[in-house]
Structures are given as C-alpha cells and as structure tokens.
Amino acid sequence: MNETDNDKIKCPFCGFEFDAVSSTGYCGSCPLAKNCKLLRCPNCAYEMPAEPKLFSAIKRLRRKP
Amino acid sequence: MSQPDLVIDYSDDCASCHERMPKRTKSQLAGTPALKIALVGSPNVGKSSVFHALTGRRVIISNYPGTTVDIFRGTAVLDGHSVEVIDTPGMYSLHSITEEERVGRAILLREKPDVVLHVLDAKNLERMLPMTFQLIEAGLPIIVVLNMIDEAEAHGLSIDIRKLSAAIGVPVLETAASLGRGMPELKQAILDFKSQGFIQPIVYDEAIENAIDSLVPSVKDSPPSERISPRSVALLLLRQDEQVRRLVAGEGNDVSTVDRVVEETMLALPQPPAYLLALNLQKEASKLASEVMTHRQTPGIRFNERLSRAMMQPLSGGIILAAVLLAMYYVVGVFGAGFLVGWLEKTLFGQIINPFFQNTLSTLIPVKPISDLFVGQYGIITLGLTYAIAIILPIVTTFFLIFSMIEDSGYLPRLAMLIDRLFKFIGLNGRAVIPMVLGFGCDTMATIVTRTQETKRERIITTLLLALAIPCSAQLGVIFGILSVSTGMLITWLGIIVLIFILVGWLASRIIPGERACFYMEVPPLRLPRLSNVLQKTYARLEWYLMEVIPIFILASVVLWAGDLIGLLDLLIRGLRPVVEFAGIPAAASVAFVIGFFRRDFGAAGLYALATQGILTGNSLLISAVVMTLFVPCIAQFSVMIKERGLKTALAIAGFIFPFAFLVGFVLNHTLKILGINL
Ligand SMILES: [Zn+2]
C-alpha cells in the first residue's frame, strides 16, 4: 500500500489517478500476468509500464543530495 | 458489513488544511454515526479528494459483499457529530452496466444514506448534469458538489450556483477539495441538509411519459420503490435494466404488466428508449449548462481547444490521424526499420556475431543437431536473438519513442472519440472504442477489457475485430518496417485493413442485432510532450518488452528446432504451403506464418527477414503484410479468447479468420494482377 501521494499514478489515456496497488484488476485472466510488470488503469484498463528502477533510483539520489 | 480487509492510517497532517488533526482511536471510529453520507459521481471528478477532505484521511477499504469491487469508508466529525462517509466506485449513470456501477447503485439502495453528495467536475458540468437529473428524479437526498472549481476557473469558466440550485431544487456548492477550498461550507451544508421531497426535473417525450404513467402503479409497492421514486424505477425498467426488473419481480410480484408496457413502448418508438432517454437528458443538460455557465476565452486555451476539437471531427480528425501515422511511418519504418535494422541485421549480426558463433560452436559441438539448436536455421542465436535484437529492438525502440510522445500529448483519448464516430456509423457500440484503442498496445489485454461491454453481442464483435484487424504495437512497428519500401504500399495496406475492419464490423453488427449505447469518456487537456517523460516511458516500455519477449523468442526457437528435428515443422510448412501460395505469397513465407502463432511480432519479423533477403518483393510483400495482419492472433491472445468467450466462440472466430485472411490475400493478388499493378 502506498503511504504518500507521491505514488499516485496518472493514466496517460483517461487522466484518472490511482494507486499502483489498485491496478491489477484485469490481470487474473491474462496468461502473461505473472511476469508482466505493466500497471493497469482501474478506470479504463489502459496499460503502462511501472516506473523503471533506474529512474526511481536517480530520483531518490536527487532528493537526498 | 464484512470484516474490513485493510485499514490505512495516513499521516495526521491534514493535506487540505495543513492543520494537525486530533488522533482518533479505533473505538471512536466504530462509534454509531449520527449520519451516513455517500459520495457518488463519475470517475475522475476528485471524489476521493472530497472523501479524504471530509474524513481526515483515515480510511477503511473493504470488499463490497458478493463482488470484486473495493469501497472506501471513513468517519468525519462535523461540528462534534460523527458521520459515516462512503465513497462509491465511479458511475456514469443510475442505469448500471459495469460491476463498479452496480456496486455504486447498490450502496445507494441498500445503505440508505441520509445525504448523497453528487460530486461533479465543474469543468464538465454539461456532461455530468444528466446523472444529477437522474439522482434528483430518483428522489435521493442529494447535494451537488461542483468540484475542481479551481481548474474550471483557470479555463475561464464561471458557474452561477444560485441559479443552478434554483433550477434543480437542490443545494449546490463549489469546492476544490484537493486544496481544501469550499470544504467548511460543504460540511455545514451536510449538517443543515433537509430533504425537499420529490421533484421532477425533466419531462420526457409524450410516448415515454405515457409509459411511465402506465408503469408507476405496478412498481409503486415494489422493493426498489422503498428507496428510489417509482418514476425512477419506471425509467430504469424502460432502459431494460435487468437488475431492477429482478428486484421488481422480487417476492413473487407479477411483472407481466411491466414487461408488456416496456415491450409496447419499445415497438412504438423509433429508437430504443434507453437511447432516447439519454438524448433527452443530454439535451436538458446542455440547455441548463448554457444558462448557468459563462465562458471567458483565453488565447492559449482557445488554440488548444480548437486543435482538440479538430482531432475529434471526422474529416479534420481523419487528416490528423493520417499525418500521425505518416510521421510514425517515417520514424519507425524508414529510420528504425530501414536504417537501423539494416545495419544491425546485415552488418553486426550477419557479418560479425552470427559467423563467429557458427564457427566456434560447430567446432566446439561436433554433433550437428545440437549445434543447430544455437546456430542452425532455427537456432537460439541465429533466429531467436537475431530477430529479437537485430530486427525487433530497433523497430520497437523507435515505435515506443514516438508512441510515448503521442501518449504524453493526450492524443489517444481524442483518437477514441474519433473512432467512436466511425463506430456509430457502422452500427457498433461506442463502448467498444476503448478495447480497440488498447488493442494497438496489446490485443491480449484488450480482449480481456471487452468484458466491460454491455452485451454478449458487443463482446463477441469486439473480440472478433481485435483478433482480425487490430495489429499490436510490436507487430505494427514491424509492418511499418516491411512496407518501408514506399509510402504507396503503406497507404494501400492501411486502406485494405480499414476497409476490412468496417466491412466485417458492419456485417457482424447486422447479423447479430442489438441496441447501441452512448459512449462517454473524459478527455484530458492536450499538452506538449515533455522530453523527460517521453524518455522515461520509452525506457520503461523497452525494459518490459525485452524482459518479456526475449525468453519467448528463445523458447520459440527451441520449439521450432525440436519440430524441425522430428519433422513436424516440415509437415506443418508443407500443409501451409498450398494455402500461402493460393494467396500469392512465396512458399518460403510459410515459416513466418507458422511462427506467427507464437507471437504476432515474431511472425512479422520473419517476413521482414525475407524482405531484406529479397525473397519477398512488390505485390507479394504487400499481400503478406495484409495476410499477416489479419491472420490468427498469437497463442496468448487465443488462450484469453477461450477464457473470456468460451472454447466454441474462440474456435468459431479463429475458424473464420484463418481462411478469411488467406482469401483476402487471394482476392488482393488477383485484383492487382487484373489491374496490371506491379508494386
Ligand atoms: Zn485510464
């Protein structure tokens, strides 16, 4: 579960904002669900990749100089 | 109420007012609230901001009984009174279609809230008022909350809330919940709320009003009328709401009169009542919105809005779409597939990597079948990795780059609105637009999303069209690459696919009749793509794609190698050869069609390899691109089709597509020959 608002993801398709945790609603019947790291918008089901580790690491470095 | 599944304790610092909030204990939360209020509204109107601003961010998430939908509950303290607040899932109308909407309605009916806050996006008042009318005509105790008023003001909009409140007869307030603006007034309005009794905001056409009059006596004493007005129950019945009909029929009530009236009304009207009702509501909403809203134009917004509208109009939208595709074609087809792949495949893999491994491994592993596993015709290195890295990687990199730009600009929802117009024209349901647009990303996922559609008929038609005519992103990229020889070829390919899409869609919607539904979607503002966003998205997609695709390509190479070893592959290719030749495609392409089963893009990469070797040229290049696009979906999509639609429907769809794809190839081949066209 996300504790801060920073983890809110904005859907690039419909603009809906959601938590990463609420993004797996459609995954149950997908045969690739186990190894696919896509996030799904709970509003319109548009899929997008999660923020890559590399980028979140860079961001963290920037925040803590 | 079932046990709460999850309790989240947010920080005690209230985000909306930055004041320290008193710590509340669990026992206080469990205390009997004096009031119960429910928040309803479409998705994306900032309902959760209002919810958090009211409840001070202490939330209980639980699964709504008997469903897979999560709902949020919290407690607000208003002037010393404890108030229970329930946040419902987004709903567009009281007539429920999706599971989320059914839960939203169930909360209104079962939980009997004392006050219902209808939260709207103030920017989109006109599109949101129809639901307000429905809630009022249901006789629910509502307060209208015009949220995101700050954004509306930034757009130069102002709303006369007194006039609006007088027109609809319920309290109206303005808030910007994420900033805490208007929240004290809202809290006071909840405490002061007095139900005004039933008002009738809209008078419908005569035929519908007559039907309502005939239905009201039969539903007056039915269970749903305990909570919503008999008029509203009658309207839901006219919209053929199955759930409401079941509730009315409930404890052995006689519904034959109800069914007869509904059926007679359907026959008497030129269009389905659900459609006419929606039209009527929208007309009234537009009228009221224009009376209470004033718009001050700002120059920057004006250009954006005009461009936005142009993207959604059929003619200008079509031209813009063609321009977008052409730009994609130059970046992906000409630069990515033509230039980058040419170098990687011919020079790096063709002259350096593959010969190196071929030489080393054949000396290291003298047993030919075993060394073939790595460097043979279907070897892991010579087929799997060469396809993945030399052909697919540069193509998808350029594709994802331009796709991320398109995504970041906000063009996709506008594309959905444009396609919706085409869909209405061919008699298809507007709700099918979302899975179709998503299909360009991944058809497997899009097939799962078809479950949000209203009827079985819609789901089948959409699944069929997805499997037939929508190429997934990676396949689309490779197709651009195959056709990079000329723009004429690309335009012909596009024309044929669009034509087939329309033709099959139109025929299918004729064969399986049913009613159309209105399509509604939020359209977020247009903006210039930001380089950092675009690069990050491209990188994320690439990382995901490579992690997923390389193992599949390696696995597919092993399966092909084994199939080749035992002669099964040869049998399959020989079986497919007459079919491929029938469509006017060289027999060598059979392999590409066989491997297309593994993944759409894998098969397309096979065609690409043949094209660079000069085996596929001119007409046969175009024909194979068309057949490959239409051809049966990959294994993943097929298995989802079975899971979602059942084995029989999935087989029927595949049974139609397989011969149809080759038949189109055949017809195309002969048409080109008759017309004397040599591409
Ligand atoms: Zn979305």
UniProtKB/TrEMBL annotation, chain A:
Name of the protein this chain belongs to: Uncharacterized protein
Organism annotation: Dehalogenimonas formicexedens
Organism phylogeny: Bacteria, Bacillati, Chloroflexota, Dehalococcoidia, Dehalococcoidales
Automatic annotation (TrEMBL), chain B:
Keyword DNA-binding among UniProt keywords: no
Membrane spanning stretches: 319-344, 378-402, 422-440, 460-483, 490-512, 549-572, 579-598, 618-638, 650-668
Membrane topology designation: Multi-pass membrane protein
Domain spans labelled FeoB-type G: 34-196
Domain of life the protein comes from: Bacteria
Role summary: Probable transporter of a GTP-driven Fe(2+) uptake system.
Protein location: Cell inner membrane; Cell membrane
Residue sites binding Mg(2+) per the record: 53, 55-56
NCBIfam families per UniProt: feoB, small_GTP
Family in the record: Belongs to the TRAFAC class TrmE-Era-EngA-EngB-Septin-like GTPase superfamily. FeoB GTPase (TC 9.A.8) family.
GO molecular function, one term: metal ion binding
Protein name listed in UniProt: Ferrous iron transport protein B
Keywords recorded for this protein, A-Z: Cell membrane, GTP-binding, Ion transport, Iron, Iron transport, Magnesium, Membrane, Metal-binding, Nucleotide-binding, Transmembrane, Transmembrane helix, Transport
